[in-house]
Amino acid sequence: MHVVPKELSPERVLFRGDNLYIMEQLVKDGYKGKFDLIYFDGPFNSGMIFSMPNDKLGVNLINPWDELAGVRHYLDSQLFMKDYLKRIQLARELLSETGLFVLQIYQKEGHYVKVMLDQEFGRHNFLAEIIWKMENNPRPFHSQFGLSHECLFVYSQTNNYLKKDGLLVPSVWDDIGIYETLGDENTFYPSQKPEKLMERIIEMSTEERALIGDFYCGSGSFLIAAEKLNRRWIASDNSQLAIKVTKERLAGIGIAVEEHLVVDHFDNSLVHSDTYNKQSNIPFSLFELKELHTAIGDKVKNINAIKFSSDIDLFTDASITFNYTMPLIDDKGISEQEVVLVPRPKPRLGNDGIYLDVQDPYRWILYQIQHVEFDKNTNQYLFDWDALQLRIQQLIDSIGNQWIDEIQHGAEYTIIKDVFGNYYSI
């Protein structure tokens, strides 16, 4: 693995991708023990499907692998804890001797996560459980029992953490804003946190110019607060939409950031006949494609991967079909027991301008939209195949051939965003 673009700013770095690989790469690249604060506003394992509403199309959008992972974690909390622990352990490697780790969660998994944090950091390094009042009107939780707070668990790496003279942080925060009153900050990104909450976390635990990290950055509230408080930061999110929203918010305060990826080197063992079959959650990239072509020429005609980076479209030396490897979705539901290949649309330049060549509109739409709903009353997932078919047909009719939502012309190449928020280059 390595980072592209390779050069990282000493002031601010934004990654897109799975934070597991990103934090592993940061450890390898010399950031071990360098962070003064790491904040996790990670998955709460609430059961809710965190899709993104698309008002133009009238549907919710989600990657099927993310949807499936959310369901599996909710049905098997041990799997959720196991995956989360890997990331907590990497965060601890990155944390300095004087650094603090802050994890935000709510009560469904909170107590189990605290025990895990006690085991990882040591009970003697537990500093605080802070209650943030996040709703004035409690959300339903169980029958007559509502939910109106989230917890922040604060841990130190050692006893030599930063102690601020004259500062006494209360354990209940009901004075800094709630979800319902984001006002002008509101990006309508799910679970967006108030900037004032982020500011208090940063101010209580660091000094100016400290290096701080947020590897579930979502809409970017933590980074906006970091900029206002003169902290250096490294952040990431797995969602392309989260990165887009974050970059737009930063641009709104005059900060331009470059998006970085962690990518793989070409692996010859993944070549089978004329197919390169990649199962990693690290996106197949132009870097990997160029190495492949240098090593074996134009032998490979099909590349199957879970994720692709948009720069692969810039490779024009060979005719290659890119296929997403996706979990099977049929009338029985969504399952990883069998996978299917979904052709990736190709950007093309025609007589009338740029267009997207979508080989199989039905299948492409099927693998872009939300498939299951979480019923809070029964704590079960609902799957309605007939309703899904109707929705797909409506989208086929409404989209027609207008797959492109936005075109951005750059100096070297053009970026295309399709109606589902996927990016391509030409």
Q: Can you walk through the features of this model?
A:
The chain has 426 residues and is an alpha/beta fold. Helix content is 29%, strand content 31%. The chain has 10 helices and 26 strands. The protein has helices at 19-31, 64-75, 77-94, 107-121, 195-205, 221-228, 240-252, 286-296, 361-366, 385-399; strands at 2-4, 12-16, 35-40, 52-54, 59-61, 95-105, 126-133, 139-142, 145-147, 149-156, 172-173, 211-214, 232-237, 259-263, 271-272, 275-277, 302-305, 321-330, 333-343, 346-350, 353-357, 372-375, 380-383, 404-409, 414-418, 423-425. A 10-stranded mixed beta sheet has the order 1-14-2-13-12-3-6-10-7-11, sandwiched between helices. A 5-stranded mixed beta sheet has the order 15-16-17-18-19. Strands 24-25-26 form a 3-stranded antiparallel beta sheet, with no helix packed on it. A hairpin with a 4-residue loop joins strand 24 (404-409) and strand 25 (414-418). One of its GO terms (biological process) is methylation. InterPro entries: DNA_methylase_N4/N6, N4/N6-MTase_EcoPI_Mod-like, SAM-dependent_MTases_sf. Residues 36-246 form the DNA methylase N-4/N-6 domain. Keywords: Methyltransferase, Restriction system, S-adenosyl-L-methionine, Transferase.
